[in-house]
Amino acid sequence: MPSGRKGQVPHGTNLLDAARLLGVELESICGGRQTCGKCQIVVEEGRFPKHAITSSTDHLSPIDSRETAYREKNHMDAGRRLACACEVLGDLLITVPEESQARKQIIAKAATDRVIDVQPAVRQIYVESTPATLEDHRGDWERLQAAVAEQWGLKNLTVDALVLPTLQPALRDRKSSSEEGMYCVTLTLWQDSEVLRVQPGYAEGAYGLAVDVGSTTVVMHLCDLRTGAVLATEATMNPQVRYGEDLMSRVSYAMMEPQGAARLHHVIVAALNDLAKKAAAKAGIAASDIMDVVLAGNTVMHHILLGIDPVELGGAPFALAIDAPVDLKARDLGLKLGTACRVHVLPCIAGHVGADNVAVQLAEAPHRQDETMLIVDVGTNAEIVLGDRRQVLCASSPTGPAFEGAQITHGQRAAPGAIERVRVDPQTLAPRFKVIGHDEWIEPGTTPTVPESARATGICGSGIIEAVVEMYLAGIIDSDGRFNENAAGRSSRVRFDGRKGEYVLADAAQTATGQPIVVNQNDVRAIQLAKAALYAGVKLLMAERRRSSPDGGSTQVEDRLQTVDRIVLAGAFGSYIDPRHAMILGMIPDCDLSRVVAVGNAAGDGARIALLNREQRAEAARIARSVIHVQTAVATDFQNQFVGAIAIPHATDPFPHLEGQLPARPTGQAARRSQRRRQPQPL
Amino acid sequence: MPSGRKGQVPHGTNLLDAARLLGVELESICGGRQTCGKCQIVVEEGRFPKHAITSSTDHLSPIDSRETAYREKNHMDAGRRLACACEVLGDLLITVPEESQARKQIIAKAATDRVIDVQPAVRQIYVESTPATLEDHRGDWERLQAAVAEQWGLKNLTVDALVLPTLQPALRDRKSSSEEGMYCVTLTLWQDSEVLRVQPGYAEGAYGLAVDVGSTTVVMHLCDLRTGAVLATEATMNPQVRYGEDLMSRVSYAMMEPQGAARLHHVIVAALNDLAKKAAAKAGIAASDIMDVVLAGNTVMHHILLGIDPVELGGAPFALAIDAPVDLKARDLGLKLGTACRVHVLPCIAGHVGADNVAVQLAEAPHRQDETMLIVDVGTNAEIVLGDRRQVLCASSPTGPAFEGAQITHGQRAAPGAIERVRVDPQTLAPRFKVIGHDEWIEPGTTPTVPESARATGICGSGIIEAVVEMYLAGIIDSDGRFNENAAGRSSRVRFDGRKGEYVLADAAQTATGQPIVVNQNDVRAIQLAKAALYAGVKLLMAERRRSSPDGGSTQVEDRLQTVDRIVLAGAFGSYIDPRHAMILGMIPDCDLSRVVAVGNAAGDGARIALLNREQRAEAARIARSVIHVQTAVATDFQNQFVGAIAIPHATDPFPHLEGQLPARPTGQAARRSQRRRQPQPL
What is the reported pLDDT for A554? Predict the structure, then answer.
């Protein structure tokens, strides 16, 4: 139990071996030497008709001297036994406590209930080697290799050249010799092929970092590679921000400044070193105990991390230096972690679809779905992924940085003080809003009670999206995005000069600057253009999917290919975007709202999955190779789709799931005016 | 010609392809693109009955625009053609000039006429890649990989992580674009699997270092990896000498001093960096053009080079940290060469038989001989190798450092001023000698004409060996090594106080110190002990060979196993030791003197062979694995053999090849005295 596996083994079989024979993976670091205590089990007593057996602790060999020795040194519940010290003498029903199960499964996050099978690339094994003698002239390394082959079945091990010097002292360490005897060591292995660390005696603790390097924010999870547990999570602003707010300005910096690319590389590496040090301190380990790192990031971050000048990514044809995953040593990047610590950089897909998107796909797994999944990952550009287990397509859509709060009059990065949520009373047109760093909503007219530190400094991405949608729902702006002349008469917050309007979201007294924060016609237009680009990208993928679908043709399939069953919103909106607002704005196509989820930093979760499961690294490489990339810049359909998508939510596409939630469609003059305006606009 | 291969190919076959089809390996870096000019051939005109063909330049397609373009830019003899630009149109007799032959063979050195097949681990290839387009979203690396697979048939290439950043600039280099077009690069490959360098356009020049790190001297050969030519040879004293004259004192230093091993590592790495810089300057290249290094050295040097504390080598059981060859990056050792430059450290055999001995075996190849070869490599200990293609055995014999001039009253390292050769007139007992750094022999009584700089400072290894032998031949000492009382009467140079004697080799006026340089009883004794240990080691191997010979048993074989056919003297004697003196001293067993050769720094040659031929690296690993190591310290026979070998040349072993060259054996009292003295003596 709990796997339910059963079978017969010869009388006297070691219980750890018996478990393996039945396909039950019990944890074991020491390889059955009563050292690690990881293979503890419980014998259920009684008659179990379902299993047709009578189980009893008597059916297991009694506690012998080896197990006694372990019990004397370590706490162990009375009812438990070390499987590796037991022999099967009769029928048994065994329960394997969760902590004794190998290949632990952990839940990555609540939003999508992703289960991670803990099978990391880096693991530890305990090995008992033998001393050198005058007759045995092999090297200590060769003797150790032979012991590993015999005790663990692993052949052709190599050892990192800088770790080799630690081998002899570890084998002959006398401090640990009182416990396990000399010539016993714990090896930290990468991919069961390379020795990254040699520690004297029995040792526990191999740690890894999963890092998502965003343009704005760097998030690092420090994980225990054995249990999969996140021991610490640290985040910091990407220090490259000082060389350019958005990606393209950093590419320009790399192009224009001598040594610019090198500087961008060095500051991000320094930031990673700082984060690792902090995370290690929080977890009570040393940074040198970190043995594995998985890095995700957009293509520009990916290149800069690897020391590659991102200049080619700054212009067509946006050539990646490399798309495949890169395995290297942390020291070669300047990371100050374990001497032989490995780094796995996730693969990229195309010039605008980077390792962060691969990480998102790893976390959300569209390629494993029966239903059609749409993933929208919004940053400076939006990466869009669409598909199911038959086929996955992706594209990067030139939304520009409006969704990140840039190009917005009072826009700002998602940081304390930014308005991140907005509600507008449809009757009074009075706004309520929430700022980052302050838990309570700011109600209209509550200015005197708002603490100074909670005063708004600007509007971040999620805030501007909600503001525009709420303005539309309240009738302040029309479906075509223009300010409604009538609204100016309903509230003094709406100002309209006959050509352009603006809406006062925060009064002067509610802001940190003492100036009101407004949303004006240009801001609405910027959001419209961004969402139209995003929507057009989605439509383009849908069209491409119909064209290239391996089972297209039948009407039933055609219909299915025109709709999405599930939408995942990921990325740097500042906070979780509200699915309803996203749909009303027309960022995303129609879908059952209960099946639209915002997952926040899915790239970080994907990096964590790749850190904790070596097979998922291969999976990521397969994703990057097999996904069909559609280049929006050369797609003839894109401009048409874009024009059609400027209206809120869309000029012609139906949104049945928003039934009853939208204001009446404009008719007459407004509709005609809106038609006239549907012309391509430069981004 | 000159291979003599012939065959038929379809009309119109490209001549480079035709050569390959016939198994004639023509050099080509550019892969048939009329860029490198390495595949030049000459068409022989006329009727060739032996080959039954009539050959004519008309039977080759005429010079086309591609070859014309090459000829315009490069000098090319009128009679030559680029094979890659020619098609076979009829019968042809083709001569491949030596420089166009791939797998060049070079002569390693005159002494043993070893031929090196130039097939290095590192080579360059020229590749024409394709530009990125909006439709082709692969990375530049993936496109290049595809081009390499197509143009060179090499798959699964990897690229050094620190070289990756140079890829895009090289592919888009505009300076080289006028010549070969953009997206054409020259790759430097290691083992046809890893890219170590990317250079724009067509480039030539990959260089390697073969290094023998001796306890006293470090010798470095800088080689052109394409031609095999030695471009520069540099040597320096091992700077570790300041931390200990001999190996054991350095091991002590590493044990006693905190950070001692690290310091020893750093000073030798710094010395290698200096040497590489000098060698590169001499060859007119940059140190960063060096892409491969092969390191040989005794076990202590081997460990220190790899950053391994040599402490375990300082006492029984003399455990090596590793015996297998080690492949790593030069940068991980602190070597300042090409960014991705590789290092191959040759394997070791046992605690006292190191990578230098493997290099010697690679150079002298006892395992490839039909006859029995004995190799004696003298340093602080003597490594002895004995065998033939059936079986090779080796041992380290505890000769102590006397052969290096240590433990000798006026002994010194082989350096300018050291007496390296000695002759003693058997009548007058007057000595002639040669000092290192001065070409002429110093005759007795020539003191006033000797330039001050040529005055003797001491006696090095080869000098003391010759001195002892000449003293024996002149009757100054007897076969048992004792000073002959009668000799004192024959010359004032021989002093004898009744118990101990001494011989004045250099008069006070012939020395730099103004003190006479003498050889005394202790010196003779030290040399006797050293040579006895060496000889006992040889006998031990012979006995072990008889015991373990796969085809032992028959009398004929038994006889063969008791003699050696060929003796190779290698190592740090200071200068080449004279075979006759070595045999008279009884260092080596009886052998035809014409088949005893001194080969000097054979380890350096072995390193060069491994540098220039990748298969020889595998051969070295096979040698290290398959050689039978005999541990003298535990061999019961060793002490007996040692005692028997103290006499000059030996108490009982016959030396038929010295017939007539030795003084009459002592008889009567001297013989009896000598018998009494043949007792074990501590070393």
Answer: 65
Subunit contact A321:B168, Cβ cutoff 8 A: yes
Bridge partners of residue A234, in order along the sequence: A220
The per-residue pLDDT for B650 is: 87
Residue B323 and residue A139: Cβ atoms within 8 Å? yes
Cβ-Cβ contacts under 8 Å, A135 against chain B: 631, 634
What's the pTM value of the predicted model, to 2 decimals?
Answer: 0.86
Name the pairing type of β-strands B184-190 and A431-435. Answer: unpaired
Cis peptide before B200 (omega within 30 of 0): no
The tens digit of pLDDT for each residue in A1-26 reads 877 778 888 999 999 888 888 878 78
Nearest Cα neighbor of A610 from A342, A332, A307, A393 is A342
- Would you tell me which residues 309-328 of chain B have a C-beta closer than 8 angstroms to some C-beta of chain A? 309, 311-312, 316-324, 326, 328
What are the tokens at A393?
Answer: 């397509």
* Contact call for B324 and A168, based on CB within 8 A: no
Tokens encoding B224: 């052109």
Cα–Cα distance for residue pair B193/B190, rounded to 1 Å: 6
Taking the C-alpha atoms of residue B378 and residue B403, their distance in angstroms, rounded to an integer, is 7
Contacts with B167 from chain A: Cβ below 8 Å: 308, 321-322
How many Cα neighbours within 13 Å face the side chain of A34? Answer: 18
**Which tokens is A366 given?**
């569209």
Cβ neighbour number for residue B97 with a 10 Å cutoff:
13
* pLDDT tens figures, B174-201: 775 555 568 999 999 999 999 999 999 9
The tens digit of pLDDT for each residue in B613-633 reads 999 999 999 999 999 999 887
Q: Between residues 121 and 180 of chain A, which touch chain B (CB distance below 8 Å)?
A: 131-142, 159, 161-162, 164-165, 167-169, 172
Q: CB contact, 8 Å: B346 with chain A?
A: no
Q: At a CB cut-off of 8 Å and minimum separation 6, what does A611 contact? A: A120, A121, A208, A209, A210, A221, A223, A225, A292, A293, A294, A344
Report d(CA B623, CA B513) in Å as an integer. Answer: 47
Contact of B263 with B239, CB cutoff 8 Å: no
Q: Which structural domains are found in chain B, ordered by start?
A: 15-100 (3.10.20.30), 121-200 (3.10.20.880), 242-345 (3.30.420.480), 362-400+527-677 (no CATH), 404-525 (no CATH)
pLDDT digits (tens, 9 = 90+) for A575-628: 567 889 999 999 999 999 999 988 877 899 999 999 999 999 999 999 999 999
Query: How would you class B241 by CB atoms within 10 Å of its CB: exposed for 0-12, middle for 13-18, buried for 19 or more?
Result: middle
| CA neighbor of A530 nearest in space, from A570, A452, A612, A588 | A588
Which residues numbered 44-63 in A keep a CB inside 8 Å of some CB on B?
A: none
Chain B contact for A300 (CB, 8 A cutoff): no
| pLDDT per residue as tens digits for the range A29-43 | 787 888 888 889 999
Interface of B with A in 616-635 (CB under 8 A): 629, 631, 633-634
Nearest to B633 among A134, A321, A329 (CB): A134
Q: What is the mean pLDDT of residues B543-570?
A: 78
Identify the helix (H) or strand (E) that includes residue B20.
helix B15-21
- The Cα–Cα gap between B104 and B116 comes to 8
Give the residue from B130, B138, B329 with the most A CB atoms within 10 Å of its CB, the best one to mutate.
Answer: B138
Residue A64, SS3 per DSSP: coil
Report CB contact under 8 Å: B306, A133: no
Asked if A614 and A121 touch (Cβ cutoff 8 Å), the reply is: yes
Q: Supply the DSSP string of B157-224, one letter for each residue.
A: -EE-TTTGGGHHHHHT-STTHHHH-TTEEEEEEETTTEEEEEEESS----EEEEEEE-SSEEEEEEEE
**Is residue A382 helix, strand or coil?**
strand
